[in-house]
Design a protein that fits this description.
Blueprint (H helix, E strand, L loop, with lengths): L1 H9 L7 H26 L16 E3 L4 E2 L2 E2 L3 E4 L7 E3 L4 E8 L6 E6 L4 E8 L1 E2 L1 H14 L4 E3 L7 E2 L4 E4 L10 E8 L5 E2 L15 E9 L5 E2 L6 E3 L1 E4 L2 E7 L2 E14 L13 E6 L2 E7 L2 E2 L7 H4 L2 H7 L4 E2 L21 E3 L4 E9 L5 E10 L15 E3 L5 E4 L3 E5 L8 E3 L1 E3 L5 E3 L10 E6 L5 H5 L1 E6 L5 E3 L2 E4 L2 E6 L3 E7 L5 E4 L13 E7 L5 E8 L2 E2 L3 E3 L4 E5 L9 E10 L4 E9 L10
Parallel strand pairs: 19-27, 20-27
Antiparallel strand pairs: 1-4, 2-3, 4-13, 5-12, 6-7, 6-10, 6-11, 7-8, 8-13, 9-12, 13-14, 14-23, 15-17, 15-20, 16-20, 18-19, 20-24, 20-25, 21-22, 21-26, 26-27, 28-31, 29-30, 30-34, 32-33, 33-39, 34-38, 35-36, 35-39, 37-38, 40-41, 41-45, 42-43, 42-46, 44-45, 46-47
C-alpha cells in the first residue's frame, strides 16, 4: 500500500494544500481497504478445480444469498429446462459422505466431500445411478421409512470428477424442476458462494433498484418533516447514464437508508439476489454487505437485515444499508465502525452514494444529496400503544382468561412492546406479524369445556390473511392444548373430525395391472394436513414416495418380488388431528421374472 501512496503523491499537483492532500489520501486508504477486503475473500478460491454439475447450458432461477423467507438462499438453483431427469455429475474427485432423503427441504440430497477441504451438495434429486439407488433403497426397506440420513465411510462410495451419480428432479420443498447446488467448507459447514469457484453463469447486466427509503433512527431524528420511514424518489438523467439520482433529503439526527433491488443474468428474466451492497458518505465507506459465505445458524437474521414490518405488510423486501445493534451477520465488513448510521447536523451538506453490485462486478450507483435541516413536523409523531412489555433476555409468561402465552428468553432480538388479547371467538391475538422473532413460542388453550372426542381431534391453527387456517405443531395434555408458533399473529383452536381421503390412480378392485411399472395412490386432507402414512402388499411394507405438489404416492414394482399373481394392498393415512383412513383392495399382476428380492 505504501508504494501506491508514493506513486499517488508523486503525481499530485503542487498547488494541492496539505489539508486536501490528507483528505484525498484518507479517501484513497478507505478505497484500498475496501478493495483489499473485497478481493481477499476471493483470491483463495480455486477457479478451475471444480467442473459444473450439469451437462446442459446453465441458467439460474436462484442465486447465492438471495433473500428468502427467514433465510438467505444457500446455493445456486440451476434451471433444468422445466424437466426432470438430467444427469448430475460430481464436480470433482471425492466420496459421498452424506445421503439425506426427506419429504420436505432438499428432498433427495447427496453430499460429496472433496480432498481440497470443500463439500458439494446436490438437492431435489429425482433418483440415483442404479447401484446408488439400490444402496439407498436397501436402507429404506431395512428402516421401513422413506426418510433416512446416512453417513457412508470415505472408501464406501467414491466418485471421480465428472462421474454421473443422480438425476435432477423436483423432490422435497421444490417449486419446480431444478438442481439446488451448494459448496460448503467441510470443517465448518459454512456455505460458500459457488460463483467464487467459477461455477456461476454469464452476467453482463447491472442490478436494478426499484425503491429507496430513508429512516429516522432515533426519537430525535426526522426526514422531510416526518418521524417515520419515507420513500425517496429516484430517477435517471441522460447526463448521468450510470447512476440513479435521488431527490434531495432534508434530515436531522441519526438516519439510514434501505433499497429494494435485484439482479438478472444474461439471457434470463429471473429476479435474483445481489452480491454486494455498499454505502459511502462524502466518499468515505460507511457500510459494506457482501455475500461470500455464511453459516446456517445466522441465516435467520435476514429478518434484521431487511425491514421486516414493511415486507410483511407489502411483500417488498427493503435491504437496510445500516446494521441493527442485534444483527450478528458475518456478511458485514467490520472495519467501518459507523455501521451505516449517518449523523446529520444542522447545515450539513452530504453526498451519500449507494453501490449495488453483482458477483461479476456490474454495479448500479445511487446518488443521494442530504442537507441537514431541522424542519417543523408535517404531522405529530405516532405513538404505538401496547399492553405487554418484553425484555428480550428474559422469559415471559402471559395469562389470559382461557389461554396463556409463553415466550422463552431471547425469543425477540430486542426489547419490544406487544398487544396481546383474546377475541370473542376464542382466538388469541399475539400482536401483528410485523416483529421478527428468534425462537418459537407457545400458545396454550384451555379446552376443558370440550367433550373427549372434540379434544382428541383439536389442533391449534394460525389465522392468516383472508381467514386461511394453517396447522401448527400441537399437543394435548389433559385439558391443555399447546401449539408451537413461529410468528406473531392470530391463533385459534379448531377441530378436524374428517379422515384423509385415499384414491387409487392406476388400479382398481380385482383388475389386472401387469403392464403398470408402478402403483399410484392419491392422498389428501383439507384441514389439519397429513401427518404420516404406511402401506403394504401381501403383508410386506412397501416404499411409497410422496409428491407434495400432487399428493400422489408411488411404489415401484421393481423394489420387491411377490409370490403368485394376487396382490393384497393396504394403506393407512393419518392426519394431524388423529383421524386415520385405511384402504384395502386386491388386484392382480403377472409375475415379472426379472424382479429380484430386495
Amino acid at each position: 500500500m505504501q508504494s501506491i501512496l508514493n506513486i499517488v503523491v508523486r503525481f499530485l499537483p503542487i498547488e494541492i494544500t496539505i489539508y486536501n492532500l490528507k483528505k484525498m489520501l484518507k479517501h484513497l486508504i478507505y478505497f484500498l481497504i475496501l478493495f483489499d477486503q473485497t478481493n481477499w475473500a476471493q483470491i483463495n478460491y480455486p477457479k478451475d478445480y471444480f467442473q459444473k454439475p450439469l451437462d446442459i447450458p446453465l441458467f439460474l432461477s436462484g442465486n447465492f444469498g438471495e433473500l428468502r423467507d427467514n433465510h438467505f438462499h444457500s446455493g445456486l438453483d440451476y434451471k433444468t429446462q422445466q424437466k426432470e431427469g438430467f444427469n448430475v455429475n460430481s464436480i470433482a474427485d471425492g466420496y459421498i459422505s452424506r445421503i439425506k432423503i426427506d419429504q420436505y427441504g432438499y428432498g433427495k440430497a447427496i453430499y460429496i466431500t472433496h480432498p481440497n477441504g470443500y463439500t458439494s451438495v446436490y438437492g431435489h434429486l429425482k433418483n440415483f445411478e442404479p447401484q446408488l439407488e439400490q444402496y439407498i433403497k436397501k436402507i429404506q426397506y431395512e428402516k421401513q421409512d422413506f426418510e433416512i440420513e446416512v453417513f457412508p465411510k470415505p472408501n464406501e462410495l467414491p466418485l471421480k470428477k465428472g462421474e454421473f451419480f443422480a438425476y435432477s428432479g423436483n423432490t422435497g420443498s421444490s417449486g419446480g424442476p431444478h438442481l439446488h447446488f451448494e459448496i460448503r467448507e467441510t470443517d465448518s459447514q459454512k456455505v460458500v458462494n459457488p460463483s467464487l469457484f467459477g461455477l456461476g453463469v454469464d452476467d453482463h447486466r447491472k442490478p436494478k433498484v426499484l425503491y429507496l427509503f430513508a429512516y429516522p433512527l432515533d426519537e430525535n431524528s426526522a426526514i422531510n418533516q416526518l418521524y417515520q420511514p419515507i420513500q425517496i424518489n429516484i430517477k435517471t438523467y441522460k447526463e448521468l447514464p450510470d447512476s440513479l439520482v435521488a431527490d434531495t433529503v432534508f434530515a436531522f439526527g441519526k438516519i439510514g437508508f434501505a433499497v429494494n433491488t435485484y439482479d438478472q443474468q444474461d439471457y434470463d428474466d429471473n429476479q435474483n439476489g445481489i452480491y454486494s451492497l455498499k454505502m459511502l458518505v462524502n466518499g468515505n465507506i460507511k457500510y459494506h454487505h457482501q455475500l461470500d459465505k455464511f453459516s446456517f445458524d445466522e441465516s435467520k437474521q435476514i429478518n434484521l437485515h431487511i425491514d421486516y414490518e414493511y415486507y410483511e405488510k407489502n411483500n417488498i423486501r427493503l435491504q437496510k444499508c445500516f446494521v441493527e445493534p442485534q444483527n450478528k451477520l458475518s456478511t458485514y465488513f467490520k472495519s467501518f465502525s459507523e455501521k451505516g448510521y449517518i449523523n446529520v447536523k444542522e447545515n450539513d451538506t452530504l453526498q451519500v452514494q449507494i453501490i449495488v453490485g453483482d458477483i461479476e462486478g456490474n454495479e448500479t450507483f445511487i446518488k443521494i444529496p442530504v442537507i441537514g435541516k431541522k424542519l417543523s413536523l408535517a404531522m405529530p409523531k405516532k405513538v404505538k400503544k401496547t399492553n405487554c412489555d418484553i425484555v428480550a433476555s428474559e422469559a415471559k409468561s402471559i395469562k389470559l382468561k382461557n389461554s396463556k402465552i409463553y415466550f422463552p428468553s431471547n425469543t425477540y432480538y430486542a426489547n419490544t412492546g406487544l398487544n396481546i388479547y383474546e377475541n370473542e371467538d376464542g382466538s388469541v391475538q399475539v400482536h401483528e406479524d410485523i416483529i421478527p422473532i428468534n425462537r418459537n413460542f407457545s400458545i396454550t388453550f384451555d379446552v376443558s369445556s370440550l367433550d373427549a372426542e372434540s379434544k382428541k381431534h383439536s389442533y391449534v391453527a394460525k389465522v392468516g390473511k383472508n381467514g386461511y387456517l394453517t396447522y401448527i405443531s400441537s399437543s394435548l395434555k389433559e385439558n391443555q392444548l399447546t401449539g408451537k408458533a413461529r410468528t406473531l399473529g392470530k391463533y385459534i383452536v379448531k377441530q378436524d373430525f374428517k379422515a384423509p381421503t385415499i384414491k387409487p390412480i392406476n388400479f382398481s378392485e380385482n383388475k389386472w395391472i401387469t403392464e403398470e411399472k408402478s402403483l399410484k395412490v392419491k392422498i389428501d386432507d383439507d384441514l389439519s394436513g397429513i401427518k404420516n402414512y404406511t402401506a403394504s402388499i401381501n403383508g410386506k411394507w412397501i416404499l411409497m414416495e410422496r409428491n407434495h405438489n400432487t399428493n400422489i404416492l408411488t411404489f415401484d414394482f421393481n423394489d420387491l418380488t411377490f409370490e403368485g399373481t394376487e396382490y393384497n394392498f393396504e394403506i393407512s393415512v393419518t392426519d394431524n388431528a388423529h383421524n386415520t383412513k385405511t384402504y384395502k383392495t386386491t388386484f392382480y399382476r403377472a409375475k415379472d421374472e426379472n424382479n429380484t428380492e430386495k
